[in-house]
Design a protein that fits this description.
The protein is an alpha+beta fold. It has 20 helices and 7 strands. Helix 6 runs parallel beside helix 8.
Length: 505
């Protein structure tokens, strides 16, 4: 975690290890290696990392639960406040690897990679403080050093909260409100992950909390001689505060509304998708039955509804084809077990296989929105070929979702993609076969050119016959039976080979 943390080195701060729990000792040793602590070893009554001084008889907070509810140190002047803020930022700079503390960049901070600076200990900040408080009661010889560590943890936690709030676009107007409602580690992670997508519900909770607080403040200003109506208002305001906090928590943790059975089904679905790749709900249920699970209360329709409403909480998102689901990792990557099957489903659903008027084979796929962008980016990365075009506007004045395309232009890329997806195609298999043959047919020779024209029309027929088949037949002056006859390449291939041999001789 710290740049100076080296296992097995000599610690600058002496600790009497007698009677200390091993986990507590490990945490003390690691915290003591923070650069700011190593540069200035703590002495009796000395503050570190901007933490307020703690005397022998000073309590550092609630002895019972180790609560870390952010509360500013007791400061007398604005100058002192600025000094403390600077120390907090300097600490964050050291933690973040010389990042500028005066201009926070959430995208580049440790928070952007993993919310929870205390994850390295395998414990929350609250648990660390609780353990340190216990150690302080039984190891009075190092009480001052432990107090310094507690204050250091509190200051680091305070900065972690601030950085999390900065990373969410709308929270700057509600910072005090959010802190007053309380933020534990679980809340922070959910806020960082879903803060923007659940903005409406979270803002409503903040406004409800502020409104209730305003009513309470007004009653307090009026004195203690309340009428019965004012007493009722006092009770109602506190009830509204409780309701606002519940709404806030419900918006952050939507999975809390599920029962154990539903959570179990959602977890099993996620495990299947992670191990097997993209699949539909019917296949998932069938796999569970085959593995001995009882599915009396769970149908494919119920499982699909469960994943649609709550799947994003465990990384489940819609796949590229209808009724398909897949897993998205925390880093935004998709779990793709069979890239060719995945690409085939994508092209079948939202892609094209064609031959242009200039005789150029083309394969491509189109998607919209943020989810579509993720699909295109991941497939491009996985296949290692094609041209990726992102954030295209469908119309010049379009305000709808942006469009994203992954297109294959060169004969090499087209051949590689079509051969890979061929066994998995369901809707565009005929087009793929025709385009692959088109690529291999010579461009010279009367018979070869005739075959290329046939294949071009055949691909167009397969793409458009359901919408304007009669129009195509009329333009070509032939019957549908003649078009279908072009599918057998045997005679034309023999004729082309004979034509090529004749040209050589």
């Amino acid at each position: 975690m710290w740049g100076s943390l080296l296992l097995g080195d000599e610690y600058d701060i002496p600790f009497d290890t007698t009677g200390l729990d091993l986990n507590v000792l490990s945490i003390c040793n690691q915290l003591s290696q923070h650069p700011m602590m190593k540069s200035t070893p703590a002495q009796q009554g000395q503050s570190i990392m901007g933490a307020p001084e703690t005397s022998e008889n000073t309590d550092t907070g609630s002895e019972g639960d180790g609560s870390l509810t952010p509360s500013p140190p007791q400061l007398d002047t604005p100058d002192n406040q600025q000094t403390d803020d600077k120390k907090v930022k300097d600490m964050a700079q050291k933690l973040g690897g010389n990042q500028s503390a005066t201009q926070p960049n959430p995208a580049a901070s440790p928070l952007a990679k993993s919310v929870g600076w205390f994850d390295t200990f395998g414990k929350s900040a609250e648990s660390i403080v609780k353990d340190l408080r216990h150690a302080r009661r039984t190891n009075k010889m190092v009480k001052s050093e432990i107090d310094d560590l507690i204050n250091a943890v509190r200051l680091m936690k305070q900065h972690e909260v601030n950085e999390t709030l900065k990373s969410v676009s709308w929270t700057h107007n509600y910072t005090d409100t959010i802190k007053s409602m309380g933020l534990n580690d679980r809340d922070l992670k959910s806020l960082y992950t879903y803060g923007d997508t659940r903005k409406s519900a979270l803002v409503r909770a903040c406004l409800a909390w502020e409104d209730a607080n305003a009513r309470i403040d007004n009653l307090i200003e009026n004195g203690n001689d309340w009428t019965s109506l004012e007493k009722q208002s006092w009770v109602q305001a506190h009830d509204d505060k409780d309701a606002a906090k519940k709404s806030w928590s419900s918006a952050l943790h939507v999975l809390d509304s599920l029962n154990k059975s539903e959570m179990s089904w959602l977890s099993m679905a996620a495990n299947q998708l992670e191990h097997n790749g993209q699949m539909d709900a019917r296949t998932m249920v069938a796999n569970l039955v085959a593995s001995g699970h009882s599915v009396k209360k769970m149908t494919p329709a119920k499982l699909s509804g469960l994943m649609k409403s709550y799947g994003s909480e465990v990384g489940i998102i819609k796949g590229v084809t209808r009724n398909q689901w897949m897993i998205q990792k925390q880093n935004g990557e998709l779990i793709i077990k069979d890239p060719w099957a995945y690409a085939a489903g994508f092209i079948d659903a939202d892609g094209y296989i064609t031959i242009t008027k200039r005789g150029e084979p083309r394969v491509g796929l189109v998607a919209t929105g943020e989810r579509g962008r993720v699909h295109c980016e991941q497939l491009h990365k996985t296949l290692g070929c094609g041209i990726l075009q992102l954030d295209l506007k469908v119309y010049k004045t379009s305000v709808n979702k942006s469009q994203h395309r992954l297109q294959f232009y060169s004969k090499k890329d087209v051949r590689e993609v079509l051969k890979g997806i061929m066994p998995h195609l369901r809707l565009k298999k005929n087009q793929a076969e025709s385009v692959l043959e088109f690529i291999d047919v010579p461009s010279k020779g009367m018979i070869a050119k005739q075959r290329r024209r046939q294949l071009t029309k055949l691909v167009k027929w397969d793409n458009w016959s359901d919408k304007k088949g009669d129009e195509l037949l009329s333009d070509w002056g032939i019957q549908a039976e003649a078009v279908e006859a072009w599918r057998d390449p045997t005679l034309m291939r023999l004729a082309i080979q004979a034509e090529q041999l004749e040209a050589i001789l």
